[in-house]
Write a structure and sequence with these properties.
The chain is α/β, with parallel strands linked by helices and about 550 residues long. Among the domains are: about 80-185, no CATH class; about 250-300; about 325-540, P-loop containing nucleotide triphosphate hydrolases (Rossmann fold). The protein is built from 18 helices and 18 strands. The strands form four sheets. It has a six-stranded mixed beta sheet with strand order 5-6-7-3-8-9, sandwiched between helices. The protein has a six-stranded mixed beta sheet with strand order 14-15-16-12-17-18, sandwiched between helices. Strand 10 and strand 11 (about 340-350) form a beta hairpin. The protein is globular.
């Protein structure tokens, strides 16, 4: 359907894409991956015509209909679900509004008995009704009714305002609007951000069922694995195509790098041997001819490119901290509500030192509220929430912490404000481990991308030694390599970790205990994420 043929994109300050070449065929589902700033969203903008490439061609076969589901959902919160879905039929809506206007005018004229004007309106009404029918106006309602249950909405839900639903349900409406337009190709930019696990499971199955082409930008590795059969990897503006899912890409890329490293090393060794021979016998009376022959052969050799060194990526290391007592947290007979909704009802929980716990549950079930109760930011309505009595030092990363940074401060000044006794070289070295190199340390916070803000917020949290970490969605906006490095840091961390995340791959790497909030209760599973899924499936 679409082919990038040696496409480059150059901005005044940066070369984003260099001779990118890849294609998507009808019905294919591909993942477009790379670090933050690699040019993934730029390629989406080129596909939908928001930006032009600097050089190269973007070839489109048969003018495919393209739809783009953006991170910022395009929904009118004051409309009902049904009205919002119907709004995707723009041409039909215009004619429908015209019909309504004509009917209202006719009612007024009927009262005045103006037959000439009435005849004119009758003709207009007939003409617009014919147009309404030819556009499929009478099928519109049937199409909406058909998609409602597929999106998980009941008939009662259809007449409720969009604003009454959570972000996950609003995403379903936005996706439904796009599907009703019957696109040939769907572009998805981080569709799982801020969705709970149940909604992510639903989205996976729904997208798999669609027979249209999909290009997915995502840092959700489970999602990429389940959905995509081709991966386009972008690094330093160059594209590489891997015909398999994300796990295949990781394995194959590693094998390719290893193979290239070996081939390059062997060739360099052979070249060095030949050069030494040539230098030694160039002036020899008996072997100079042989030396010259080898020199000619050496000039003709197809040299293997030197392996490209991997881009530096943020490496998160938690500072050493005194050990805590064995008991880290006790929750006794806790009940808590928000407005009319009971979030937690008579729950109990004990957490021991060294545990790495993932807290799961749908959006709005009380996960972040529980963290706030633990951190004493809010008081429990009934029951007790107590940290252990011996040497508990906490660090808390809130879900929107990155957005709470001082926008008018420079990155380096934020670190100095927390550690005024550090030297500039120590601050710059510390920031370098979080991906802030050279002049980027002098950027103002308001100039940073979402991923950069997230890394900076993590850096500020990590500066202070702790033995109890509470992390609320720490991987939001982090690229794949940053996530892997955070996983490694948590696995090396000697303290206790309590994490809220919808990133299943991340959970599977760091958690040794799962706690699920379900129907206002805490259900504990003493094992990793795979064990949790196994137990859940056993109950079905």
């Amino acid at each position: 359907m679409i082919r990038f043929d040696n496409v480059s994109k150059i901005y005044s300050t940066d070369v984003v894409l260099k001779n990118i070449s890849w294609e998507i065929r009808k019905g294919e589902k591909i993942g477009l991956i790379g670090s933050n700033g690699a040019g993934k969203s730029t390629q989406f903008k080129i596909i939908i015509g928001e930006e032009d490439q600097t050089s190269g061609q973007v070839l489109k076969e048969g003018n495919p209909k393209i739809a783009h589901l953006k991170q910022e959902l395009d929904c009118n919160l004051k409309r009902t679900v049904r009205e919002e879905l119907e709004s995707s039929f723009k041409d039909i809506q215009l004619v429908s509004n015209k019909l309504l206007e004509i009917e209202n005018q006719m009612k007024v004229l009927e009262m005045t008995d103006n037959s000439k004007s009435l005849d004119c309106l009758v003709n207009q009404l007939a003409s617009n009704q014919e147009k309404f029918e030819s556009l499929g106006g009478y099928q519109m309602q049937a199409e909406v009714e058909k998609i409602l249950p597929k999106l998980g909405f009941t008939q009662d839900d259809a007449d409720k305002l969009i604003g009454n639903f959570s972000g996950g349900w609003q995403m379903k409406v936005a996706l439904g609007k796009i599907i009703l337009q019957k696109p040939d190709l769907l572009l998805l930019d981080e569709p799982t951000n801020h969705l709970d696990l149940d909604t992510i499971f639903w989205l996976e199955e729904y997208l798999i069922s669609l027979k249209i082409g999909i290009i997915l930008i995502s840092h959700d590795r489970y999602f990429l694995d389940k959905l995509c059969k081709k991966i386009i990897f972008i690094e330093r503006g160059i594209s590489e195509t891997y015909n398999g899912n994300y796990s295949f890409f990781v394995e194959q890329k590693s094998l390719n790098e290893e193979s290239q490293n070996k081939a390059f090393a062997l060739q360099q060794k052979e070249i060095e041997i030949q050069r030494k021979y040539i230098e030694r016998f160039r002036a020899s009376a008996t072997r100079s001819t042989q030396a010259k022959s080898r020199e000619k052969q050496l000039k003709k050799i197809n040299k293997i490119d030197a392996p490209i060194s991997r881009l530096k990526s943020p490496s998160f290391n938690f500072p050493e901290c005194p050990r805590s007592g064995k008991s880290v947290l006790q929750i006794k007979n806790l009940s808590h509500s928000f407005e009319e909704k009971i979030l937690l009802l008579d729950v109990n929980l004990n957490v021991s030192a060294g545990e790495k716990i993932a807290l799961l549950g749908p959006n709005g079930c009380g996960k972040s509220t529980l963290f706030k109760l633990i951190m004493k930011k809010i008081e429990p309505e009934i029951g007790e929430v107590n940290l252990g009595k011996h040497n508990i030092i906490t660090s808390y990363y809130e879900q929107n912490q990155a957005e709470a940074l001082s926008f008018d401060k420079q990155v380096i000044d934020l670190i100095f404000s927390k550690a005024p006794d550090w030297s500039q070289s120590k601050v710059r070295q510390f920031l370098g481990s979080f991906g802030f190199y050279k002049n980027s340390v002098f950027k103002y916070v308001k100039q940073l991308s979402g991923g950069e803000k997230a890394r900076l917020a993590l850096a500020l949290m990590i500066m202070r030694p702790s033995n109890l970490l509470l992390l609320d969605e720490p991987t939001n906006h982090l690229d794949l390599q940053s996530k892997e490095n955070l996983e490694l840091a948590i696995n090396n961390y000697k303290g206790t970790v309590f994490v809220i995340s919808h990133d299943r791959y991340f959970i599977s790497k760091v958690a040794n205990r799962i706690i699920e909030i379900k129907e206002s209760k805490l259900l504990s599973f003493n094992g990793n994420y795979e064990y949790f899924l196994e137990k859940k499936n056993d109950k079905k």
